[in-house]
Design a protein that fits this description.
mainly alpha, elongated
């Protein structure tokens, strides 16, 4: 019985680890990052709807999102910022 329980526990741990590994891939394009990271709380079209902001204004928004719980690595932050500035700036 103990071997069966240990096997089930190990299988659950492996499934959870695989899930987090799959969803934390770092080779996403900046557009994919915006879709996966920002759309957790916002509809994607609302993120950029009619927005044309300066780099500084995008930084203020990204910093606010970070303080509200957006979990972005330094590289993700930079890539998202560069994408928004390139495609949605004044």
């Amino acid at each position: 019985m103990n071997k069966k329980v240990n096997f089930i526990i190990l299988a659950v741990i492996l499934v959870i680890a695989a899930y987090f590994f799959y969803f934390s891939k770092t080779n996403q394009t900046p557009e994919e990052l915006v879709k996966t990271k920002c759309s957790r709380c916002h509809h994607t079209y609302k993120i950029i709807e009619n927005k044309r902001l300066t780099r500084l204004e995008w930084i203020v928004i990204l910093d606010r999102m970070q303080s509200n719980g957006a979990n972005l690595s330094t590289d993700e932050y930079k890539n998202i910022l560069d994408y928004l500035v390139k495609n949605y700036s004044k």
